[in-house]
Design brief:
Length: about 375
């Protein structure tokens, strides 16, 4: 049997990893500033993470949500504290798409409404509702097409206000990334996020903060939407939550009422996934990783702005987009093949940095030196 060929693959076989370093099968060493799409949050193979997961596996790896799983409560407590949302509720699932799917469903159950507002260049995942709210027709199957999702221009206050005037009483939810990831590292403006909050309050709609990529401490705040000083009704999360162990979740404001069967999953919230997520939060707290993300991220952003060739540097903390002119489309590939540094990309020509939250200033300097070399080449 062959694999279903849906991924353009870089021909590198990573066989070992530690912190922000990975090695291929020939023993070549690479600096990982991408973490496999923003997933590696506390560094590869962190000793506390390995210990916590190993211990859990020796006790029990999985049982379904039909029995008590106390480690879920422990995770909820730690997550409530670190995110400053102690009065919110936690629903656990397995991925970012599933988190958004449940967030959108919950908004619709809660309001009894059908319409979702999403924005240009948004990416919310590949399950049916999440993909319908994703601004990429190429990945929306005919069966996922729906008139219930309305796309509006990102950061356009006037258009959003008018849309609510026109059909606000039909809007179940507004879903927005605090910083668009796949869309090219574009920040939602503070006034725009504040406007979403006030319109959702005025019209009884649900504000969903997609924090799958931009959340979990990456920007220096727990949720990237926090910098706008607004509270969303539901936060979706995944990626950095398990440092590679599949886990996702939604943090749900107290006004939502749970009832048996409203949401559900077989695997979500299993013992092993929760052990991974608890280990991540332990390390984030012990090693003050949000502060590090803020500090090393600001340093990188300031230094990157000094390169004349760079058209724009966008982002916050360790979620950084470097926009280059089209003729420099080779830089990302050269960084990997010539300097052995993994980075990400966004179309048309943005290099995305999404490293572990504990990268050092020395790692940042290694990248800056290599980047300067590549720009000159
Ligand atoms: C903002 C955002 N939301 C949702 C998702 C979907 O997450 P997953 O791939 O875990 O389903 C992604 C994945 O890239 C994302 O960046």
């Amino acid at each position: 049997m062959e694999l279903f060929n849906v991924y353009p693959v870089t021909p590198i076989n990573i066989v070992k990893a530690q912190g922000s370093t990975v090695w291929d099968e020939q023993g070549n060493e690479y600096l990982d500033l991408y973490g496999g799409h923003a997933v590696i949050s506390i560094g590869h193979t962190h000793p506390h993470y390995i210990k916590r997961i190993t211990e859990q596996l020796h006790n029990i790896g999985f049982y379904s949500n039909s029995v008590l799983i106390p480690i879920q409560q422990q995770l909820a407590k730690q997550l409530g504290e670190v995110s400053g949302k102690e009065d919110y509720f936690l629903f656990l699932c397995n991925s970012g798409a599933e988190a958004n799917e449940n967030a959108l469903k919950l908004a619709s159950f809660h309001t009894g409404r059908k319409k979702i507002i999403a924005f240009t260049k948004a990416f919310h995942g590949r399950t049916s509702l999440a993909v319908a709210a994703t601004d990429n027709p190429a990945i929306v199957a005919p069966v996922n097409e729906t008139e219930n999702v309305v796309f509006l221009p990102f950061n356009d206050e006037e258009v959003l206000t008018q849309a609510f005037k026109d059909f606000g009483d039909e809007v179940a939810a507004v879903i927005i990334e605090g910083i668009q990831g796949v869309g090219g590292i574009r920040e939602a403006s503070v006034p725009f996020l504040k406007l979403i909050r006030s319109l959702c309050d005025q019209y009884g709609s649900v504000f969903i903060a997609d924090s799958v990529q931009c959340g979990y401490g990456r920007t220096g705040s727990f949720y990237s939407h926090d910098y706008a000083g607004v509270q969303a009704d539901i936060y979706s999360m995944a990626k950095g939550m398990g440092n590679g162990f599949p886990i996702g979740g939604i943090s749900i404001a107290p006004k939502f009422k749970a009832s048996f069967g409203l949401l559900g999953t077989t695997f979500g919230g299993n013992h092993l996934a929760c052990a991974a997520a608890v280990a991540v939060l332990d390390v984030m707290a012990q090693d003050n990783l949000m502060a590090n993300a803020q500090e090393v991220g600001s340093y990188l952003i300031e230094e990157l702005k000094k390169f004349d060739e760079v058209l724009e540097v966008r982002g916050r903390g360790l979620m950084i987009g470097i926009e280059l002119p089209t003729e420099m489309g080779h830089v990302k590939k050269d960084l990997l093949l010539k300097n052995r540094i993994f980075t990400g990309e966004a179309k048309p020509n943005v290099i995305r940095l999404l490293p572990a939250l504990n990268i050092t200033k020395a790692n940042a300097d290694q990248f800056l030196t290599a980047f300067a070399e590549r720009l000159k080449a």
